[in-house]
Amino acid sequence: FEAAWILPESWPGGIEFTFRILGSNGVIDIDNTLQNIKIASSRLHYPPTLSWDAQRFGAFLRAIDGPGRTGVPFADGVECTRTLVAIHRSLESGAVETI
User: Fold this and answer.
1) What pLDDT does 74 receive?
2) pTM listed for this prediction
3) Which residues, 6+ apart, have CB-to-CB distance to 24 below 8 Å?
4) Residues with Cβ < 8 Å from 52, sequence gap 6 or more?
5) Are the CB atoms for 40 and 20 separated by under 8 Å?
6) How many CA atoms lie within 13 Å of 44's alpha carbon, on the beta-carbon side?
7) Where does the chain have alpha helices with state H?
8) Backbone conformation region of residue 13, classed left if phi is above 0, alpha if psi is from -120 to 50, else beta
């Protein structure tokens, strides 16, 4: 699980986000910068992901323009950040971090 907000202006996206789940029977690999999802189990599959940024921006505008809601609550963003902070602390200390 990785997310980065401090990137050079030449980076092709506003953020960098990757997420990977590895298992003996399958893998899910998500890369926001490349707008790519790979799912491997008995076969390799690439679900359609083009125009993520436009879809997210449109959802955000609908949410602030009316009764709509964003797909991700603010609390989930906080938990994502808490997870990243715990990973950094664990790497620095070598200890297990409780979230």
Assistant:
1) 76
2) 0.44
3) none
4) 32, 35
5) no
6) 4
7) 52-65, 74-93
8) beta
Full strand arrangement of the beta sheet holding 2-4 = 2-4, 16-23, 26-31, 36-40, 44-45
Residue type, 9: E
Q: Which residue has the tokens 């790497």?
A: 91
Please tell me the distance from the alpha carbon of residue 50 to that of residue 45, in angstroms, as a whole number: 15
Phi, psi of 39 (to 5 degrees): -125, 125
70 pLDDT above the threshold of 60: no
Instruction: Report yes or no: 20 and 28 within 8 Å, Cβ to Cβ.
Output: yes
Tens digits of residue pLDDT in 16-68 = 778 888 999 999 888 877 777 889 999 998 877 655 566 666 666 676 666 66
Burial of 57-88, coded b for 16+ CB within 10 Å and e otherwise, reads eeeeeeeeeeeeeeeeeeeeeeeeeeeeeeee
